[in-house]
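Quarterly update from the structural biology core.
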Amino acid sequence: MSGNYKVYSSKCESYEYENVKNVIFEHLDMIISDCYDEFDFTDKNVVLKPNLLAKRSPDAGITTNPVFVRSCAEYFIGKGAKVIICDSPGGVYNTSSINGIYSVCGMKDAADMTGASVNFDMGHTEMFNSEGVMSKSFSIINPLAKADFIVNLCRLKTHSLCNMSAAVKNMYGSIPGLMKAEQHARFPDQKDFSRYLIDLCKTVKPCVSIIDAIIAMEGNGPAGGTLKKVGLVMSSSNPYVLDRVACHIMGFRKEEVLTVKNCIDMGLCPEDITEIKIVGENIESYVSNFKRPDSSAGGVIKQLPNLFGGRLRKWLEPRPVIIKKKCIGCGECARCCPQETIDIVNKKAVINYDKCIKCYCCQELCPMKAVSIKQNLVMKL
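Predicted structure, tokenized:
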């Protein structure tokens, strides 16, 4: 897969179903002809893995738009496959919580319209990758672990921890529920966590990855940013090459997105964007400088030497701050904190900074956008 340096790109200005469907069908036809021509989809389990970060309406621009899921479901059901829609969002992973997310995010409607099914198997399977750099063992939600063919459906967004959320980062939803918090605690260093994400993606092995960049997100993504129209859909059988192109479109240097930087260093994608064959739209006309997350300075700081026992680095890093006026004391940040460093006191969240690892999960998952990222004054000079 890593040798396939080809990305398909198409202009798509809106989420009107027929427009998206035509693009998706065209991309899937070309990718399957190129890479899976002999694959018989009859009665095979095709799993569609969208980004269902939280229970938000598609109009919020946080989750994968359901027209992408509906289009893919229709395509593969037309080939005789059994299509399952699944993801493990942030927070608790059980039938009650996931049912609400499927409904609000439009996944239930997409399934009902096409004959696909939404997943309610909350179990997981241990998968192993002997070539893993940071980890060789992974707990993977059952539909993905048992899939015959996986389609990775993500939305192009900035990300407070990783700077960019696209194909590789979207596969983090393979890890069940609060087990994701355990991995943040296990790999608090951004470079190590980015390598873990690559190990995970190489283990689950999505067959096709599709990026919804019709409406992307900039600033404090993946949930608190500002919507930004790009008007593009991109697809590839190679998620690492697809992310290299996405990084370029967002105006990030490769060093700013450590999943991309590590993929280049590992030989999974080329450093030179011109080595990637773009089929379709010229991507250069879609390149712009996305607004960085407020936490983006943290990625640079975390690469500093461990001076003074790491105290200098910790002091300089951007940190999450609770906006008291917005906080309703729901406790979602406390439930999702990898280090259990947040308490609810007098119906307000309180962060113990001595234990905080700056993963920004609290900002990512707060339903009220009551967490901001505060940069150290020194870094603003």
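The chain has a mean pLDDT of 92.
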